[in-house]
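Forum: Protein Structure Q&A
Topic: Joint prediction for protein chains with partners

I've read a bunch of threads here and the consensus seems to be that you should model interacting components together rather than docking separate models afterwards. I'd like to see that in practice. Below is the full input, 794 residues plus whatever partners are listed. Could one of the regulars post the assembled result?
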Amino acid sequence: MRVMAQMAMVMNLDKCIGCHTCSVTCKQAWTNRTGTEYVWFNNVETRPGQGYPRRYEDQEEWKGGWTLNKRGRLELKAGGRLRKLLTIFSNPKMPSISDYYEPWTYDYATLTDAPAQEHTPVARPKSLLSGEDMKIEWSSNWDDDLGGSAATEKHDPMLRKIADKVKLEFEQTFMFYLPRICEHCLNPSCAASCPSGAIYKRSEDGIVLVDQDRCRGWRMCISGCPYKKVYFNHRTGKAEKCTFCFPRVEVGLPTVCSETCVGRLRYIGLMLYDADKVLEAASTPDEHDLYEAQRDVFLDPDDPDVQREAEKAGIPRDWVQAAQRSPVYALINRFKIALPLHPEYRTMPMVWYVPPLSPVVDVVKDTGEDAEDQGNLFAAIDALRIPVEYLAELFTAGDVAPVDGVLKKLAAMRSYMRDINMGRDPNGAIPQAVAMSEEEMYDMYRLLAIAKYDERYVIPPAHAEQAHALEELATECAVSEYGGGNPEIFGEGSGGVDPIAVENFQMLKDRQTSDTIASPSDRSARVNLLNWDGKGTPTGMFPPRADETEKP
Amino acid sequence: MDVFLWVIVPYLCLATFAVGHFWRYRYDKFGWTTRSSQLYEDRMLRIGSPLFHFGMLGVVGGHVIGLLVPESWTDAIGVTTEMYHGAAIGGGLVAGVMTLVGLAILIYRRRTVGPVFSATTRMDKVMYAFLGVVIVLGMWNTIAGSVLSVGGHYDYREGVSVWYRSFLAFQPQPDLMADAPIGFQLHGLVAFGLFALWPFTRLVHVFSAPVGYLTRPYIVYRSRDDAALGSHAPRRGWDRVG
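Posted by a regular:
Agreed with the consensus. Here's the joint model:
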């Protein structure tokens, strides 16, 4: 047993309202630069839909991820090492910018510069790649809320697999949102595809990162990732991907997408897993068994054997404790209601999803039946094969049984909790029908419905004694070598450098989690006016009050 | 003049080449990339780029054999001059035509595709000019010198190659180069100019040819400890006393 820790996420799709706040805040934080205009580390897709980039899920076309060869051994779907090197001069499977979209801006200047004329001047769209006028024909969310889906729906690779039934019953439309970030896989095919070895998995927390100094722009990761979550920065010529906001996670804060999620649907926590079993699990012959195989790779943090092995592997004690409190572990292995996205790619993804019950509830509600009665819901889950089969194509390689199980648990929770909320006696038969105890069901409800900030995000900070090596804090500055730290000598920029995570994120956290006005007392903080929320008066911002100066 | 052209200039270029690469690697690892433009345009690149690069590999291989392997070695294993020149001209023509056609497609693409053209730096243009001239002159030497025998026959294995090996051994014999036909002289000079430019262009990606990929494990794990992104090594945690 070789215990490793992995920072993982679960998203509860029933709560996603498709507001794209996560995408926008992520973009503001990470990809608001030239060269990454089309890059969305986090995007929200309307399903059924083509996704972003278009039809990325069709691995027969894109050849992302892993596959089993004739001898049953795991190999990259796009071919082995030699083949990769032979196609290095022109990657045959790389999406072009038209599969994403051509980024553009508007010629806003004409709105103010235009001479007096009969017609109102318009700001024409200009391509950000060539600077020419362009016609906007596609973007990252062109089919948002099923917009234009009559024309584009047929291109959804997942829907096509169950196409014969859809034709008959498509008038019973269903829809849900799928927010996606990098999966930070246990068996990342992007890293395996990188000829330079620039993509690595951090051994402490499993976050998959691109070393910008080692990336040489061979572009194999972009085609190697089946989720198409590694992007090519066309200005720097290097690959970039979601970082799981490692500067924030290292100091115990959730990712930007989670922090700003309006629906509070994201959960972050640690998973302990057995690194020796990953390859075997990824090589499971039957695609339908991949979900269970991956669950078997995870270790129970309450097991004394696991704790002992974790200690041997150098995982700090408080990390094991965090793994015990991990909401992600609870959703995946205790309640078993979270499912991996496309396990059939065999990358062992680590961002899991609680599938949405809402398509089923909506249909029952439309019929005028009681949409919170577990009998009605169970019958509907069985009858509404299209949403269920579609979800199965996304989360269990097409195996309907696990999705059925999850949806029934969610339906049971719905009707069980209704009794409690209405002041009636809870019906113990309902949790029993889905093989759960009443207590478990209530715990599940608590975690899904009312878990607070510190229950949804159980993130142990990286250790202070390691602080020097932390990527975020490794900001040794030349000035400090001259005994710096005196902020008065050379003006604003002088003195020791405060790492951003300490200066801003920790302050932010203090402010969010304390009842009183918070300001760091152990350091002379510089206040960022943009972040100042009006709480308190940081020292130095205002001249001292008259009555204060008179006091001794 | 001969000493200047065939001793001083080549060594200056070689020094620039070596020191330039050291400097670039030390200070600009972030800029060390192929700067691929495949994202912008795929159709022409799919033909042009493999043609050019594989052709170039052949051309480089041919130069290594032609310049570094002395005639006495090939004689020793029983390769006659006719066999040698036949193979050299045949291989050289195939590789050269591939390279030239590939380069033509790539330059045409670079000029006509809007996004690719606007991502082209001034350095790229200078580099393309040098590269194009070197390749055209090399082709001219092969065709005019060896196939058509314009201006008489010249055996570079007894001239240019010997000079090149003497140059690498730091015992240069400039008179050998001074006697070579003008085509060979120009080809050599422009090539040395290209070598001097090399470390400051995107051509540096040649030196990161990912051969290690064939043997390394698929998944790379790295600890936070050795992944320090800061350019400075951690300072020692103590101060000297006294």
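The first helix of chain A runs from residue 21 to 30.
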